[in-house]
Design goal:
The complex is a heterodimer of chains A (112) and B (114).
Chain A lengths: L3 E3 L4 E4 L4 E7 L6 E7 L6 E6 L4 E3 L2 E6 L4 E6 L8 E10 L4 E5 L3 E6 L1
Parallel strand pairs in A: 2-11
Antiparallel strand pairs in A: 1-3, 3-8, 4-5, 4-9, 6-7, 7-8, 9-10, 9-11
Chain B lengths: L4 E3 L2 E4 L5 E6 L6 E7 L5 E8 L2 E5 L7 E4 L6 E5 L8 E8 L8 E2 L3 E5 L1
Parallel strand pairs in B: 2-11
Antiparallel strand pairs in B: 1-3, 3-8, 4-5, 4-9, 5-6, 7-8, 9-10, 9-11
Chain lengths: 112, 114
């Protein structure tokens, strides 16, 4: 099983739609969870951290399910500018620092 | 907004040559990282650096690679003898604290080995 697994997509949805991505992780000791977005040939940019209680930032909602070892990202009222690859990032404790693992990303394309 | 700065943005080098990729992390950040992304593939962790030493490295980070923080502001990645398969986008990142906080990435150096 991959350490961090994401549906690669692409998800192709109309503007205004709601779209959700899941990401599963294999190490139950994982401690921190993030969603990043990456535009084509650009650096990853932090979208939001994911907290145990779930958290929301505008149109974006992130949730963590430790029992099932997955995190999710929900985008409401999607905009054309939301088109990007969404990366799930998980950190796990290691010998002296965190091990940081990226998922392969889920591509999202919003159509007018 | 504070930025992580990387130079050069694009480097072309011949196979077997040494390259040094440079990064200036955010000034109050204490943890520094290098990642790479081969075109069309996932972002891969190379190395993390804290308190002037490597704290974690991946299996990719072999003897060909080294990192330095020579002067308290720059953070460099050296590849001693480049191979074709080293062609990738190399991202530097920094964070204020490990684990709990997200990482700020630089805009990357595209390395092309010919």
């Amino acid at each position: 099983r991959k350490e961090v697994e994401q549906d690669p997509g692409p998800f192709n949805v109309p503007e205004g739609a709601t779209v959700a991505f899941n990401c599963t992780y294999s190490n139950s000791a994982s401690q921190s969870f993030f969603w990043y977005r990456q535009d084509c040939r650009k650096e990853p940019k932090l979208l939001m951290s994911v907290y145990s209680s779930g958290n929301e930032d505008g149109r974006f909602t992130a949730q963590l399910n430790r029992a099932s070892q997955y995190i999710s990202l929900l985008i409401r009222d999607s905009k054309l500018s939301d088109s990007a690859t969404y990366l799930c990032v998980v950190t796990t404790p290691s010998s002296s620092a965190s091990k940081i693992i990226f998922g392969s990303g889920t591509r999202l394309s919003i159509r007018p | 907004e504070p930025e992580v700065t990387q130079t050069p943005s694009h480097q072309v080098t011949q196979m077997g040559q040494e390259v040094i990729l440079r990064c200036v992390p955010i000034s109050n950040h204490l943890y520094f990282y290098w990642y790479r992304q081969i075109l069309g593939q996932k972002v891969e962790f190379l190395v993390s650096f804290y308190n002037n030493e490597i704290s974690e490295k991946s299996e990719i980070f072999d003897d060909q690679f080294s990192v330095e923080r020579p002067d308290g502001s720059n953070f460099t990645l050296k590849i001693r003898s480049t191979k074709l398969e080293d062609s990738a986008m190399y991202f530097c990142a920094s964070s204020e604290r490990d684990r709990t906080y997200g990482y700020t990435f630089g805009s990357g150096t595209r390395l092309t080995v010919v």
